[in-house]
Write a structure and sequence with these properties.
The structure is a homodimer. Chain A has helices spanning 54-66, 75-90, 107-126, 130-133, 169-183, 197-210, 226-236, 250-257, 276-281, 297-310, 324-335, 382-395, 402-409; strands at residues 5-16, 21-22, 25-26, 30-40, 45-50, 95-97, 101-103, 141-143, 146-149, 188-191, 216-219, 240-244, 264-266, 287-290, 314-317, 363-364, 367-369. By secondary structure, the first copy, chain A, is an alpha/beta fold. In chain A, strands 9-10-11-12-13-14-15 form a seven-stranded parallel beta sheet, with helices on one face. A three-stranded antiparallel beta sheet of chain A has the order 1-4-5. A three-stranded antiparallel beta sheet of chain A has the order 8-17-16, covered by helices on one side. In chain A, helix 5 crosses helix 6 (197-210). The longest helix of chain A is centred in the N-terminal third of the chain and has 20 residues, at 107-126.
Chain lengths: 420, 420
């Protein structure tokens, strides 16, 4: 069993995305993703999914060129190849995603989808689901939270998206009701940083009234000053399961953490291994949101899980707009992470298209059953892949630019980071 | 591919051990180990090796009884079974090894050999070496250090062991010469805590004179007060590669670390995941010695490697008296640990018997080539296994008791912990 990677295909895709508002602007009409295919000389196929901003795409393609001959079991060797290629092709620079997430090295984000695809390949080669390759599933179903957004009824100049406008507590509760009724989520997260914090607290309190039992989270993506963040934590103590990134930076988060018992979570100030030691040293956060796209794939995300367990931190999971290959990878990772202490985030309900054949991934009572087939357990639908690639070619979007898209609608807009 | 564990055999062994001196006494004439065999319904065999103190052996046997039906891929499930069994059979108590190492929970030490044996099984099932299951070998050969001991010429009342007496610098240099000449080690470690620290410093300086280029380590197993430890570090600054456990406890080590630039290593104050956060918080150690027997197997030792890398600590590897199954596991782990920053310890040269068929594990220039066969890559020699089991039955030793054995020779002896 020494099958080698013989061919690598990187396919950029675009899929329709509603006008979801956030601290830096609003989602563009098209979200971008890339699907990685690793083919072996023995006829197997492994899949990965990642961001598709043009800089990232160039790096993925440079790595793709270097992979033929690689053994899919040799993940340390894969990582060395990625480091070599990035050093040669890009000077080893960092990476930026969505105008909010910046990392000083692109190695983990570029390595991640290839690692996932290698694990998918290995799973197919040995006839085992990816969760088995990560030590075995500790849960058969993975719980997700419903991800609520302030939003317009539709993109300006385009038809409404069917979800309706949500710019006040009532709109958020209506959205939550649809999420809970159709998908069964047992926890809810509101993306904040859009309106004045008092109004966002009103929305959380309205959700609490509508759903007395559901765990609630609020994530303003660092929109508040440390003092405002502490005041919000005061107001929502006993209401929130956790407060995510109320203020930017490890120092600010530590200031807030010292002033509240509400657990603080992050996907902004701790998004790479280098951030863990400084954050732990000042007790800046109580919960880290893992994200295998950002943290270097499934095995390094498992390492993050072990680190959070070792240092007494909670562990949840972050999500960007994504398709089914990523959902499958998230589910296998979550299933094989004993220390996962919260329901995972997902943007999945907000999209209307996918590239995986239907039937394997389904939400039932807010949970997704762990696929039991070999590898990730999902199959690429080449017709759907072709359609979304056509959309990519046609749509003209080449990077995620929430701020400039927002400014094309409201020229006075500027990002809300620590505004309030 | 759903082979299941069908039969488990735990075989306690004894093998001759020279009178190696340490802080708590002297090695008994017989060292104990246990070999774990996991047989599957598909006819595969997986091997593990661990301690064989009688308390540990009882726990191993209790777990062995619970394993038939277990999927060797499901390591998280294996761990749950170990936790269940230990809770039921032993009340969940801790474990003690060699009079020096105490852990508050026996889960990791009991789980470890079964985990290794499962990885050996999985490797055989998929036709891959264990290093491939850990992410791939980053080195084809694993460097070890020569492990020097103060010792008598032989056990009292028994023939000399052929290594001669080593109770002064000359004796240590002669021993080092044999280690280097016969095994090719490129680093040397002296087990201290036996003589006055001035005399042990003399020995290190004699080694430096004899081997101007070899990295040197001194490990007195916590024999010194913090102030003595700081004074020794002063004297040996620029001579030692690292100083291992000069004084007991995280607090004492932090005191010494603040007073010297000599890196402090530990296999005593950080020997379980629960010790990492407190040690890191006070910068008590710069290097952790991993040991898969103690840290819960190969995957959890890989987690330890990732934690040390994340927190800027060095990583070396500890050894107790062991046989070839353990050596193979150590080599695969070391090969697949990118962050391993020092040559590993091994007691291997001090034993005269083994249970693995010869030919795979060999020291060349102080290094062992990573086995490339499936699983651990070593084969049990059933004749040798039978012989060492007979020795176990005959020898009467049922636990490691360096102190009481020493007292049978020198009734006035008491352990040297923080004596000087």
């Amino acid at each position: 069993m020494t099958s080698r990677i013989s061919r690598v295909i990187v396919t950029p895709l675009a899929f329709a995305d509603p006008p979801l508002l956030n601290v830096v602007g609003v989602h563009q009409p098209w979200a971008l993703r890339a699907i990685i295919e690793l083919h072996t000389d023995s006829g197997l196929l492994g899949l990965g999914e990642t961001y598709a901003d043009e800089t990232h795409l160039r790096r993925l393609e440079a790595v793709a060129d270097a992979l033929p001959g690689q053994d899919p079991f040799d993940l340390h060797g894969l990582r060395r190849r990625v480091i070599d290629v990035l050093g040669r092709e890009t000077g080893g620079g960092g990476a930026s995603f969505g105008g909010m997430l910046d990392v000083s090295s692109a190695v983990d984000t570029v390595y991640a989808p290839f690692e996932v695809a290698c694990l998918d390949l290995v799973g197919h080669e040995v006839g085992r689901p990816v969760s088995d390759l990560l030590g075995g599933a500790v849960r058969e179903r993975v719980p997700f939270s419903g991800y609520l957004f302030y939003k317009w009824a539709g993109h300006p100049g385009r038809p409404d998206d069917g979800w309706g406008e949500a710019l006040d507590p009532d709109g958020i509760v209506v959205q939550a009701k649809r999420m809970v009724d159709e998908w069964g989520f047992g926890a809810l997260k509101l993306k904040g940083g859009v309106l004045h914090p008092d109004l966002e607290c009103d929305a959380i309190e309205a959700l609490r009234e509508a759903y007395p039992e559901l765990p609630l989270r609020l994530d303003p993506n660092g929109a508040w000053t440390p003092d405002t963040a502490a005041a919000v934590a005061d107001r929502l103590a006993g209401v929130l399961e956790y407060l995510e990134d109320p203020t930017p930076g490890i120092e600010g988060m530590a200031y807030v953490a010292a002033r509240t018992d509400v657990p603080l979570a992050t996907n902004m100030c701790v998004i790479a291994f280098e951030h863990l030691a400084p954050a732990i040293a000042v007790d800046a956060v109580q919960i880290v949101l893992s994200d295998h796209h950002l943290w270097g794939g499934l095995r390094r995300s498992a390492l993050l899980g072990g680190i959070t367990e070792t240092f007494g931190l909670g562990l949840s999971m972050h999500s960007n707009s994504h398709l089914g290959v990523s959902l499958a990878a998230m589910v296998h990772l979550a299933a094989a992470t004993p220390h996962l202490t919260y329901a995972c985030d997902t943007h999945y309900p907000w999209k209307t298209h996918d590239v995986v054949a239907p039937g394997v991934l389904a939400f039932d009572e807010g949970e997704v059953a762990v696929p039991t087939g070999p590898g990730l357990g999902v199959e690429l639908d080449r017709d759907l892949l072709g359609e979304l690639h056509e959309d990519y070619l046609r749509c003209g979007v080449r990077r995620r630019e929430d701020t400039s898209y927002m400014r094309s609608i409201d020229p006075s807009f500027s990002p809300n980071t620590a505004r309030w």
